[in-house]
Each structure stands twice: as structure tokens, then as C-alpha cells.
Amino acid sequence: MSTNDAELLVKAEEWARAGKKIAIATVIETWGSAPRPVGSHLVIDAEGNFLGSVSGGCVEGAVVAEAAEVIASGEPRLLEFGVADETAWRVGLSCGGKIAVRVEPVT
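RE: above sequence
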């Protein structure tokens, strides 16, 4: 689902006011080719519902899974995704770039 940042933040606020536990993932750095620019957001609730995009495909699923842990622990995380020989069997970016995503709980 394509949602602009203002709509995303409004929805995040709505979810938080409704008592949902949520996290916001933000692309904080990119190297080379990356599917989404710095500042792109993904809002995730504790049930795994999400809006926005930080990359797409397998990366998005991995960020949603990590967000569940961030919501449970209350501790932010820094995630990095890219293509490298040692990560060929894990989540990566087929475009050949790298991204860093910060996932923070909203309290």
C-alpha cells in the first residue's frame, strides 16, 4: 500500500490513541541503489498490521518481524539489509544496494 508520510503519521497517531502498541521503522541511510529513499516510513502494530514501505519484498517482512520484538521489549533496533556473499541465504536487496532502518517503539 502506498501511503504518503503525512497520512502514515496520522494513522500512527490514530493507532496509538486507540491503545494499539506500535513501532515506526524509518530508512535512515542508503548506499547505492535502494528501493526507498532516506526518510521512508513503515508503521507496524503489535498484531503485524502495517502501512507504508521501507523497501518491499522480504525486507519488509523482516522489518515487521523485528518490529514485533521492538514493541515487546520497548528497545529500538538498527537493522541493515544488503547483498553480500555471507548474507546470500538471508534477507537482502536484489537491487545491489544497502539500507539501514531504525525501528523504534511508540510509547
